[in-house]
Design brief:
- The chain is built from five helices and three strands.
- With 99 residues, it is α+β, with helices and mostly antiparallel strands.
- Strands 2-1-3 form a three-stranded antiparallel sheet, with helices on both faces.
- A hairpin with a 4-residue loop joins strand 1 and strand 2.
- The longest helix is centred in the middle third of the chain and has 12 residues.
């Protein structure tokens, strides 16, 4: 059984890139920086890997990646910062938006 990393990388313009890989975060960043990982990050410029989470299977990694891709920039930033209260607040505000 192989482990998978779900990660959030920061692009040159401040946006986030969410992906999955079996490579370690250090190796993954090197492939992004060299332009060998994806056309998108080669064009947009990956600056650094901000956050990683280990998943036990490809299926669980894909599910988590899909979940994170649906999150707002602010919610991803709260996750990166480990700000659980803000994560909860942002989750509530999405379920019950202000009128």
């Amino acid at each position: 059984m192989s482990a998978w990393y779900v990660y959030i990388g920061r692009l040159r313009d401040g946006r986030f890139y969410v992906g999955i890989s079996q490579a370690s975060p250090a190796t993954l960043l090197k492939t992004h920086l060299s332009g060998d990982h994806s056309r998108y990050t080669r064009a947009q410029g990956m600056v650094r890997i901000e956050w990683t989470e280990l998943q036990p299977s490809l299926a669980s990694a894909k599910a988590r990646e899909r979940q994170l891709k649906g999150w707002s920039h602010d919610k991803k930033q709260a996750l990166i910062e480990g700000n659980i209260e803000k994560l909860k607040q942002l989750a509530r505000s999405r379920k019950h938006p202000a009128s």
